[in-house]
Amino acid sequence: MDNLDRNVGLAELSTPVPVVDLDRLARNLDRMADYAGAHGLRLRPHVKTHKAPAIARQQIARGAIGLTCATPREVEVMGEVAHDLLLAYPPVGAAKIERLMALPADIEIAVAVDSAPVIEALAAAARRADRRVRVLIEVDMGLHRVGLGTPADAVALAALARARAPLAYAGICFYPGHLRDPIVPADPGLAALNRTIAAYIHALERAGLAPETVSGGSTPTVWHTHELEGLTEFRPGTYVYNDRTTAAIGACKWDDCALSVLATVVSTAVPGQAVVDAGTKALGREPMRGAPGEGFGQVLGHPEVLVTRMWEEHGVLDLSDTAWRPEVGERVRIVPNHVCIVTHLFDRAVGLRGDTPATEWPIAARGRDPVATADALGPVSVGAGALGG
Predict the structure, then answer these.
(1) Whole-angstrom Cα distance, residue 103 to residue 371?
(2) Which one-letter DSSP state was computed for residue 240?
(3) How many CB atoms neighbour CB 152 within 10 A?
(4) How many angstroms separate the CA atoms of 36 and 231, rounded?
């Protein structure tokens, strides 16, 4: 059971707080699950967007084969929900690796790596713990963030992983984050990506290291994942909530944005603007991609109104292009530029049916500290039925 007072309305919620339209959330979850099923793709959603076991349960219930995580904390928390977890981030350092080894034995662990030192450290820890760890070789498709840059390097590291039992070489993974623009038919970026994927797969096949798993994808390319030849699983994250950027690049529609930050107008003293109690510590400070100066959020119901300036606890709504004049105490909902940053800033989210608070859930995987026991998480406030599953 959740602990939300059923007599609380939007006007009574303490702000700022992330609020989620439960109907939009369910629609987003269904759409991605249906897409995966229609194209025979394994869905392994990334939890970085919601960081909530309550949402992860809904993804698993809709057919996700497992979950993708970015931090040991996320892996620990999501071990309560799924038994097949991918840490899509190199676990550098003994402390992080030991946290993985301490997971319950029934959890299948996979790790993305791009260096020999991590493989050696991971193998040594896995031997001590007597547990199998699947290894995906991270390859660079053009973002130049992490990942091996040549097929030859991928072959060499895959061979090392295969030779280091109890590690189990499983395949490759990638994140084509360099493709940011809306995808169009016969997109040259997708064509180039397909050529690069093929080069890695063929090199591994020739070396007797054919990848069982080819894991990849990104939000801009998500609805074109089936066009990526050889890909077996994909890892979308933002789709559960979506945000202003996702809508701007055409990966969702505006009415697919399920999460907004409920804020209160605290001042209208300066003409032409209203100040809300949601600043950088509620909205983050990420600009729109490639569009500096276009604000840090957009008011739901008043798309002409942007958050144009922020301090830690102050956000300025620019009213120069609207006849709307909010009053002090009025509540507004702001769709953020990047929702993944926003959820990490809060301890809980509130689910809405229409404009009525209906449930809430903890954002349990935020932060970095280890989760030593299940009891340390506290009760998960919401079950499958409350989210419409």
Answers:
(1) 10
(2) G
(3) 11
(4) 12
- Alpha-carbon gap, residue 208 to 220, rounded angstroms: 33
Quick: pLDDT tens for 147-203.
999 999 999 999 999 999 999 999 999 999 888 777 776 689 899 999 999 999 999
| pLDDT for res 375 | 45
Q: Measuring CA to CA, how many Å separate 44 from each of 59, 119, 213? A: 9, 23, 12
Q: All domains of the chain, ordered by start, with CATH?
A: 22-242 (3.20.20.10)
Composition of the chain by helix, strand, coil, percent to 5:
30, 25, 45
The count of residues in the chain is 389
Q: Distance between CA atoms of 130 and 17, rounded to whole angstroms?
A: 44
Contact 205, 172 (CB under 8 A): no
Structure-token pair, residue 193: 């990506």
Q: Tell me the pLDDT tens digit for each residue of 325-373.
A: 999 999 999 999 999 999 999 999 999 999 999 999 999 999 999 997 5
Q: Residue 8: what pLDDT?
A: 77
Element (H, E) at 307: strand 302-310
Q: How far is CA 147 from the centre of its chain?
A: 19
Asked if omega into 16 is within 30° of 0 (cis), the reply is: yes
- Alpha carbon separation from 345 to 17, 22, 226, 348 (Å, rounded): 10, 20, 34, 9
